[in-house]
Structures are given as structure tokens and as C-alpha cells.
Write a structure and sequence with these properties.
The structure holds 2 protein chains of 2 kinds. Chain A is mainly alpha-helical. Helices cover about 70% and strands about 5% of the residues of chain A. In chain A, the strands form 2 sheets. Chain A has a 3-stranded antiparallel beta sheet, covered by helices on one side. Chain A has a two-stranded antiparallel sheet with strand order 4-5. In chain A, strand 1 (about 145-150) and strand 2 (about 155) form a beta hairpin. In chain A, helix 3 (about 40-60) crosses helix 13, helix 4 packs antiparallel against helix 5 (about 95-120) and helix 4 packs across helix 10 (about 235-255). Helix content of chain B is about 70%, strand content about 5%. Chain B has a two-stranded antiparallel ribbon with strand order 1-4. In chain B, about 50% of the residues are buried. Classes of the chains: A mainly alpha, B mainly alpha. At the A-B interface, helix 6, helix 12, helix 14 and helix 15 of A face helix 4, helix 9 and helix 11 of B.
Chain lengths: ~350, ~290
């Protein structure tokens, strides 16, 4: 019975995503979608993937991570690097993009394990600041990395392009430090984005409702109790963390292929990005995967919808954020809502209220 | 000699981090929350001085006093409107609200002052000191920064150990429930903590922008994050820890900028933080957390 219920709930989530896709396709076909909104379609997908994957760490595993953008950055750069490298070997853009997605996710997942092993020993706010630190380190390292290629093979440097010592005829600079990677084909489309989002949802939802997922949630609810019944805490923590990192890497590859220039600026991969994704997760509801998707879609569109208000839009965004948090989480507001709800119920059903 | 000069500049930068870190560490110790908006209070303080000195033509000291006043009122207002209603809510909810407040302050500043960098006039009017026959030059800003940091540390330690409200702050940070039972007004104590932290942020803003004179609505956010790192580094909740963490961070940042790579200095600072936390999970001077079953 329970299994059926979960399956039913998951189906609603998938159906919502597909319906969203269909509505957007319909709007495009009838010409009702502004070019501004069209530009948001791919971002909506990668933000939703990022939110769902971060929810796995924050909501399901219960560990606060402020370095999610770092994993996205790793995925984006390894994916874009692969696409640029294989230009001659694999001429088909689609095939390269597909392989780049796999590679980006795998590299980000490996980074998740490498970072997770030391970091997951820490707890709460300490874990948060260390993940933030890791995100910043990754961004900084990529900003000083120069990689080029000529007939002798690859050349690395952390200084500038001239110190790569490339052959004048065959040399190509692939990663140009702070300027990043240029010339990535813009292969990401809305349909691919939606497919990746569905894939992410399938992975995360199935993970949550599996034996592994229950083990992860038991660690969140009470680590000591979970340990005492023989659950390998480190293993499950690492597993959830690295799956979350790999999915962030997937979103990163999608992101890299939606732009022709990929650079690790503070705005794209800094802690502000990680925080923005965390805002999606918290407003969507911790542990609520469908909520993450909905919050990511609405909050990505919101600043654009408010564009008519020009300079005031980010201000309004900030106020909406504060008011929503106060309304959602303040103990008094929760009490007030409960009282109102009770009254409403009694009005509808006065006989029950009298008892 | 150049090493000594980098070192002294590092201590000066570290002193600024330490003053900011005090705001983080006190609020964390007492209210158990990460006040992400603290960095932006620094920015507000710097803009208050900028307006008072450069626009209204007031003397520097009056500018600092106005900034301290503005930031204290702002800190109290933020605490009352945004954080107090969330007392008892999950720490994540408070964190997100703090992020909202941070966005709010940045965007209000953006609307008023625009995104172009403003040239901040230094509030320090002490000439440079030349030592060792002119080989070592220490700027007036450096001297004032280090001196004010020491002064603030001494004053704050005395305040906490010698006054009733300081003792109340200690009690609340130790055990909020027990403090309430002893008749301590927890809300008032937390408000005082916010007021002190915000006043210190104004001073930090003045010192920061005197040393690095470019002022934008985002000026406060990176020093804020660094100072928070310093607070965690020294052991969050501990006042000597904030001083120690701030100074170490400032020195490491400046030396790595000078000798290794200016682009990698942030990465080095953050790597050091990670290393320290792996060896001492609660920071250098942090208390060990005991786990109860």
C-alpha cells in the first residue's frame, strides 16, 4: 500500500514536469512566449536540477552545504573542456554533448567523494563554512588555470598563456584562466534540459524511497540511533553527498553548453550562487523534491516577471524572501495559521466545533 | 624589510577581520545564528561616513559617530523585525532570512548610491611613520587600525566580565533556558549583542574603507565572509578566538598575496581554514562539543 502511494506521488511530479514542457511548447508554437522568457527556459532546467540535487544533501541527508556551485563549476568546466578537446575526434555536437554530460557528472561525483571524506566529519554550521570554503577554492583554482594543446600534447600553467610554451602552428589555448573556456557549442535546448531534469528526479526520488534512502534519512533524524542499529553512517553520507555533487555537475554541463563563454566569476560560481540554490531548496520545502522544482521555476522567473519594475525588482525579491520566511517558519505565524485553519474548519462543520 | 612591511599590513588587515569577526562570534555565541547580513552592515556604515564626510562636509569623527549610530539602529531594527519572530524556528530558516536581509541592504544601497565605485576619503589623519631610516614605512591607517582593534578587544572583554549585562550575555550563551529561569531578559540581551556587533561593524567599515578606499554596495560581502571564516577559525563564540583567527587570516592572506600569487590568496586562506577544522573541528580556541545520547 505504501509503495503504491509513493509511486503515485512520484508520478505526479513527473507529470507536472512533462505538463510544464508541453505548455511551454504550446506557447512557443502559438508565439505567445517573449524572447526574454525563452532565454529563461534552459536556466529554469539547470536551476531545478541544482535545487533537487541540493535538496538531497540538505533536506534528505540533513547537512547544510554552501558549496553546491563548486560542484556545478567542476562539472561545467570538465564537460566544456571535453567538448572543446574532442572537436576533431567526435564531429557530432550531439554525441559530444552527451558524453560531456556523463563526464561532467562523473568528475563532479569524484570531487564530491574527495571533498566529502574529510568534510562530512564536521557538523552543522562548521560543515556549512567548510563547503563554502571548498566552493571558493575550486572557483579560485579554475581562475588561475591555463591549459593548452599542441602536437606534443597538453600543457598546463597557473601563470598566463605565454608560459604554456605552445607550438606556434598547432597550439590551441583551451582554458584561458579568468576568461575561461570559449567556443563551446550551444547545444543545450529546453527539451534536453527537461529530459535531464526528469532523469535527476528519477534518480533522486528512487534513491529516497529505496533502502539506501531510508538509511540516509535515519542518519538525518538521529545519527547515533542509526549507528547503533548497524547503519554505516560514513558510507551513506558519502553516497548521498556524491550523488548530489554528480547531479550538480550534470547541471553544470548543461549550463556550460547554454553559453558560448564559460568563466568562473564570483557571480556564476561563487558562494552567492550556492546560497541562491539553497534559497530555492528552503522555500520549496526541505526534503520536498517537487517543492524544489516548483520553487526553482517560480524564483527564476520572478525577477524577470518583475522586470517592469526595473531597479526595484531585486529589492522586492529580497522583501518577498524575508516575508515568506517569517510567514513560513516563525512560531507565531504557524500558531496563527493553525488557529485560522481551525476556525475555518469549525465554520464549515459547526456541529463538530460545538463538541 | 619588505617582509616586515607585509607582515604589519597583514596584522592590520587581520585587525579589521577581527573587529568584524567579533560581530559574528558574539551573535553566534548568544543567538546561535549565522548573521549573513553582518557584512552588509559594514557597507552601510561606510556609506554613512561617506555621506556625512564627502557629501555633507562634516569632520571625520562626526562621520564615524553618525555611522556607529546608524548601524546600531539598523542592527536593532533587523533583529526586531527579521530575527526575533524566528526565535525557536529552525536555524536554516534564520539563515535564509539573514540572506534576505543581506540582499535587501545591498539593493537599497544600490538604489541610493548606484553601482559605481565611490572614492572613500580616509578617516585617519595621522602621517606615515618611517622606521629604520626610511626603509620601513607604516601608514597612519595601519597604526590606527591595530590600535583600535586592541582597544576594542580590551573594552569588550572588560564589558563582558565586569558589567551585569555582560554577565547576562555570557549566561545566555551558556544556557538560554537556565538564563531565562534566573530572570535574565533574553530578548533584551540578544538585542544588546546585536547593537554592539553593529556598532563594531560601523567602525570596521570606517577602517576597511580607509585602507581600501573603493566603496560599492558589495564592499562588505567578501570581507564579511572572510571575517566569518576568521571567527570559525578561532573558534566561533570565543572573543579571543576572533582576534586570533582574524590576525592569522589577515597575515596569511597578505603574505600569500606577496609571495605566492595574488589570485590564489583566497584559496590559500580557505585551505588553511579547512586544515584547521579537520584537526580541531571547533576551531583553535573553540569549546569541545560533547555529544549526548
Amino acid at each position: 500500500m505504501k509503495k503504491l502511494k509513493y509511486g503515485y506521488k512520484n508520478l505526479i511530479t513527473y507529470a507536472m514536469v512533462i505538463a510544464f514542457w508541453a505548455v511551454v511548447q504550446l506557447l512557443i508554437a502559438t508565439g505567445n512566449l517573449s524572447s526574454l522568457m525563452k532565454g529563461l527556459l534552459v536556466p529554469v532546467c539547470y536551476y531545478a536540477i541544482l535545487a533537487v540535487s541540493l535538496n538531497l544533501t540538505v533536506g534528505i541527508l540533513g547537512e547544510l552545504s554552501l558549496g553546491h556551485a563548486g560542484f556545478m563549476c567542476v562539472g561545467a568546466f570538465s564537460g566544456a573542456f571535453f567538448t572543446r578537446c574532442m572537436e576533431e575526434a567526435i564531429p557530432s555536437v550531439g554525441a559530444r554533448f552527451f558524453l560531456a554530460l556523463l563526464i561532467g557528472a562523473a568528475v563532479a561525483g569524484v570531487f564530491g567523494i574527495l571533498i566529502g571524506i574529510p568534510v562530512l566529519r564536521l557538523k552543522g554550521d562548521y560543515l556549512a563554512i567548510v563547503t563554502l570554503a571548498f566552493g571558493e577554492i575550486i572557483k579560485n583554482l579554475i581562475n588561475v588555470m591555463y591549459v593548452g594543446r599542441d602536437h606534443n600534447g597538453f600543457h598546463f600553467s597557473i601563470k598566463d598563456t605565454t608560459s604554456l610554451g605552445l607550438d606556434k602552428e598547432t597550439g590551441v589555448v583551451l582554458i584561458k584562466g579568468a576568461q575561461g573556456i570559449t567556443g563551446t557549442p550551444r547545444a543545450a535546448t529546453f527539451t534536453i534540459g527537461i529530459l535531464l531534469l526528469l532523469l535527476t528526479l528519477v534518480i533522486v526520488l528512487n534513491l529516497i524511497h529505496s533502502r539506501t534512502g531510508r538509511a540516509v534519512m535515519s542518519i538525518r533524524d538521529n545519527r547515533i540511533a542509526a549507528e547503533s542499529i548497524g547503519i554505516n553512517v560514513t558510507k551513506y553520507k558519502l553516497l548521498a553527498f556524491s550523488v548530489s555533487a554528480a547531479l550538480a555537475g550534470l547541471a553544470g554541463v548543461l549550463y556550460a553548453h547554454s553559453l558560448s563563454t564559460l568563466a568562473a566569476t564570483p557571480k556564476t560560481f561563487g558562494y552567492n550562487m550556492s546560497i541562491m540554490i539553497l534559497v530555492y531548496v528552503v522555500l520549496g520545502g526541505l526534503g520536498n523534491i517537487r517543492g524544489s522544482v516548483v520553487a526553482a521555476v517560480i524564483l527564476t522567473a520572478l525577477p524577470e516577471l518583475l522586470r517592469g519594475l526595473a531597479d526595484y525588482r531585486m529589492l522586492i525579491y529580497a522583501i518577498v524572501l524575508i516575508v515568506m520566511m517569517l510567514f513560513n517558519s516563525s512560531p507565531k505565524a504557524i500558531e496563527l495559521r493553525a488557529v485560522l485553519f481551525e476556525r475555518l474548519k469549525n465554520k464549515k462543520n459547526p456541529a463538530k466545533g460545538a463538541v | 624589510m619588505s617582509f616586515l612591511s607585509y607582515l604589519i599590513n597583514g596584522v592590520s588587515l587581520g585587525s579589521i577581520y577581527a573587529i568584524i569577526a567579533l560581530g559574528y562570534t558574539m551573535v553566534y555565541g548568544i543567538a546561535r545564528m549565522l548573521n549573513f547580513a553582518h557584512g552588509d552592515v559594514i557597507m552601510v556604515g561606510a556609506f554613512a561616513i561617506f555621506t556625512a564626510v564627502s557629501t555633507l562636509g562634516l569632520p571625520s569623527l562626526a562621520g564615524i559617530l553618525i555611522a556607529v549610530l546608524v548601524c546600531t539602529v539598523l542592527g536593532l531594527a533587523i533583529e526586531t523585525v527579521a530575527y526575533r519572530p524566528l526565535r525557536g524556528a529552525s536555524s536554516l530558516a534564520v539563515l535564509i532570512t539573514a540572506i534576505g536581509v543581506s540582499y535587501l541592504l545591498q539593493n537599497v544601497a544600490l538604489l541610493i548610491f548606484g553601482s559605481n565605485a565611490r572614492q572613500f576619503t580616509s578617516v585617519v589623519h595621522i602621517p606615515n611613520v618611517k622606521l629604520a631610516g626610511g626603509a620601513l614605512s607604516i601608514s597612519g591607517e595601519t597604526i590606527v587600525t591595530i590600535a583600535s582593534c586592541l582597544l576594542i578587544m580590551i573594552a569588550l572583554t572588560t564589558f563582558i566580565n565586569r558589567t551585569k549585562i555582560g554577565q547576562a550575555m555570557l549566561a545566555v550563551s551558556e544556557d538560554r533556558g537556565a538564563a531565562t529561569l534566573m530572570g535574565i531578559n533574553v530578548n533584551k540581551t540578544i538585542a544588546v549583542t546585536f547593537a554592539i556587533g553593529s556598532a563594531l561593524a560601523a567602525i570596521a567599515g570606517a577602517l576597511l574603507c580607509s585602507t581600501y578606499p573603493s566603496l560599492t554596495p558589495y564592499t562588505g560581502s567578501m570581507p564579511g565572509i572572510k571575517a566569518f571564516t576568521a571567527a570559525v577559525f578561532g573558534g566561533i563564540g570565543s572573543i579571543p578566538g576572533a582576534l586570533l583567527g582574524g590576525i592569522i587570516l589577515g597575515v596569511v592572506e597578505n603574505l600569500s598575496k606577496a609571495y605566492i600569487s595574488s589570485q590564489l590568496s583566497d584559496a590559500i586562506v580557505f585551505s588553511l581554514l579547512i586544515l584547521i577544522l579537520l584537526v580541531r573541528p571547533t576551531g583553535i580556541l573553540g569549546k569541545k562539543i560533547h555529544e549526548k545520547v
